[in-house]
Specification:
Length: 141
């Protein structure tokens, strides 16, 4: 089954606590592991940016679950891509808490087709996926 990736942004429910969010991430990780999905969830205290990747036939029901969740609203799909390789194969779901500024910068990037820039294009506006990967990789610093 071909790989599909999807990225979206949404507004966190004002009543969502970090404890409840941690439980949701654990539930999502268990579901995703069963469905062969991987991904990351960035959270700035107000908004989410999530990228989910896996078999096409597993993405659709997972995304339906996401759209029905009461933990967020205002879901806007940023990009979708068929094919390619996983960017986050290590995690069935990984939560990364980021600053509002970092998330705003990532969201202002180009998300078309979930593309990444080639090395020779580094002086152009970064792609959204480039920013997402950079935020996740530097989260432990």
């Amino acid at each position: 089954m071909p790989l599909q990736s999807i990225a979206y942004v949404s507004n966190a429910s004002p009543s969502l606590s970090l404890r409840h969010l941690s439980g949701l991430v654990l539930d999502a990780a268990a579901y995703n592991e069963m469905a062969s999905l991987t991904g990351v969830l960035l959270y700035d205290g107000e908004r989410f940016l999530q990228m989910l990747e896996g078999p096409e036939d597993a993405i659709a029901p997972a995304y339906d679950r996401i759209r029905c969740a009461k933990s967020h609203s205002g879901i806007t799909e940023l990009g979708r891509r068929n094919g390619g390789e996983r960017h986050f194969p290590w995690w069935s779901m990984h939560l990364v808490v980021v600053s509002r500024v970092d998330l705003r910068i990532a969201l202002s990037s180009d998300w078309r087709g979930l593309a990444q820039r080639r090395v020779e294009d580094v002086y152009q506006v970064p792609m959204g996926l480039d920013r997402l990967v950079a935020l996740v990789l530097t989260a432990g610093d």
